[in-house]
Amino acid sequence: MTAGFAPLATPPYIAVIFAAQLKQDAPGYAAMADHMVALAQAQTGYLGHDSARDADGFGITVSYWRDLDAVASWRRNAEHLMAQKLGHDRWYEHYTLRVAEVTRSYDSHDFDARIGKDGG
Amino acid sequence: MTAGFAPLATPPYIAVIFAAQLKQDAPGYAAMADHMVALAQAQTGYLGHDSARDADGFGITVSYWRDLDAVASWRRNAEHLMAQKLGHDRWYEHYTLRVAEVTRSYDSHDFDARIGKDGG
Q1: Which of B89, B108, B118 has the most A C-beta neighbours within 10 Å, making it the best mutation to test the interface with A?
Q2: Is the CB of residue A19 less than 8 Å from the CB of residue A93?
Q3: What tens digit of pLDDT does each residue of A46-81 get?
Q4: What pLDDT sits at residue A113?
Q5: Would the CB atoms of A98 and B104 count as touching at under 8 Å?
C-alpha cells in the first residue's frame, strides 16, 4: 500500500465524489481544506479519502464513509457548513457532488486474480 | 456548467472510482490514456468522466456508466484489457478501484435549495 491511498474498507460503504474547479484566486482555500480534512478524520464513520488537484485548479476528492448517517452528520457539522458556504460563495467556480454506495473495491495487488474475470 | 465536468445523469447509475500513483517514468502512458478516453466514450452506456492528476503523479479518474453491464463490457474490451495490463506492469506504482452506485447527485447551482437540508 502506497502512502496517501485511502484504505480499502469492506463494502458496502459510501463514497462522496466531489469534483470542483477552483477560481483563479481563492484566498484562504488551502488552509480551510486542510482544516476540513482534520475535522472529517475526527468524524464517526469516516473511512478515508483520496484527493488530487491538477495545475489548472480542477480537483477531485472522494471521501469514504461507513453509512449515510455518517455522511449526513458530516454534512451538518457547523464548521463544515461554514466551509461549504465559503466554497460556494468564494472559492469554487463550479462543483459537482455525487453520493454513491461502493459495492466492490480492490487494488493493484488483486490484478492477477481479477483480470479477465467477468462480472464488471 | 463549466467545461470539463461530466454531466449529471439521473441516478441510479454507476461510478467507477480509479485512484492511481504513476511511476516517475511512465513512457507511453499519456498517449494510451488519451486513447482509452476516446474508446470509453464510444462504449454503450458511457455517461462521462472526471479526471485530475497532481504534480506528483497521483490521479483520480471517475467514470460514469448507465449500469453494471456497461462497466463489464468496458472492462472486457480487448484494447482496454491490454491497457490494463500495461498499466499494471509498467505505469502504475499502485492503484485502487471501486465500483459504486450513484444514488444522488447535484452541483453548485443547487446549493441554495440544498444547504442545511437533512438526508446526508
Answers
A1: B108
A2: no
A3: 999 999 999 999 999 999 999 999 999 999 999 999
A4: 72
A5: yes
Host H or E run for residue A96:
strand A92-107
CATH fold for domain A13-105: Alpha-Beta Plaits (3.30.70)
Mutation for B interface: A17, A85, A91, most B CBs within 10 A: A17
**Mind telling me how many Å the CA of B15 is from chain A's nearest CA?**
8
Q: Where are the domains of chain A?
A: 13-105
Architecture of domain B24-106 in this structure: 2-Layer Sandwich (3.30)
E strand or H helix at A91: none
Determine contact, residues B108/B9, Cβ cutoff 8 Å.
no
Cβ–Cβ below 8 Å for B54 and A58: no
Would you say A80 and A74 are in contact if contact means Cβ atoms under 8 Å apart? Answer: yes
What's the grid cell of residue B50? 472526471
Q: Residue B95's closest CA among B9, B20, B32? A: B20
Q: Is B90 exposed, middle or buried (0-12, 13-18, 19+ CB in 10 A)?
A: middle
Q: Model pTM?
A: 0.91
